[in-house]
Amino acid sequence: MAETVTKNMALAKAINESLRRALDSDPKVLIMGEDVGKLGGVFRVTDGLQKDFGESRVIDTPLAESGIVGTAIGLALRGYRPVVEIQFDGFVFPAYDQIVTQLAKMHARSLGKVKLPVVVRIPYGGGIGAVEHHSESPEALFAHVAGLKIVSPSNASDAYWMMQQAIQSDDPVIFFEPKRRYWDKGEVNTEAIPGPLHKARVVREGTDLTLAAYGPMVKLCREVADAAAEEGRSLEVLDLRSVSPLDFDAIQASVEKTRRLVVVHEAPVFFGSGAEIAARITERCFYHLEAPVLRVGGYHAPYPPARLEEEYLPGLDRVLDAVDRALAY
């Protein structure tokens, strides 16, 4: 009997398996970051990879994010495909200059002659009771920069396949990993044919309102849809999967059916990705909408201490309140 290719694994393990497959299939793939080797990463996402592939393929770096990304850019110029880990979301800012000034611009600067196939892995978001600089959601800062692809999986299967596609991309990809979902398990078919990297996916059909989210908020939106169903309301849940580019066609198709949209993300609502979605869908679907596009997210304030983060993060009640307001029109 042939061995099944479908495995049940946690999201973190799915990324580990995907990185292992990439290392095994392409000698130009390298992994770099703080504690990614001997320790296997603070979340153990790279556990065992240095042991199996050696210190020249899985490289423990100094605590210097700008240097990590800058080195990856140089390696990419020499034909490698570096996958770098930023240990926590709030640590990415020392590398922000390298990412937006060099990594994002080199393809255009060289008139298309130079490609930089670099993946920057960033565990992001809250919900784990961490200290300051460990629970940020900076995706909108990067989405504003042309030349970068921004993606975030919400489940183990997407984590596995989206990482494969990110590594194979000739463009730089910022890969936001929802750290609070690292331990959520799901089925992963390691021989499946994945869909397009930047294509959104309907994960629950509905007729009354669309909930659009990505990364850690998709699970919450499914829970909101379950709660709303008990009151006879049918909510459609759309997993955006990609922040840049955004699959506006999929959002439009869902909104034309449900006529209402609530966008949910952990990042602050002010100037967040939900604002771009609201503006674009209002332009595209003005005559279909029966309520304004509403947004639910974090507050325009520094991320709070761990004991207050449940008040800061979008939860079931806050999203249901937005659903109620949208359906009241």
TrEMBL record:
This is Alpha-ketoacid dehydrogenase subunit beta. InterPro entries: THDP-binding, Transketo_C/PFOR_II, Transketolase-like_Pyr-bd, Transketolase_C. Its cofactor is thiamine diphosphate. It is an enzyme of class 1 (oxidoreductase). The keyword Oxidoreductase applies. Its EC number is 1.2.4.-. Residues 9-184 form the Transketolase-like pyrimidine-binding domain.
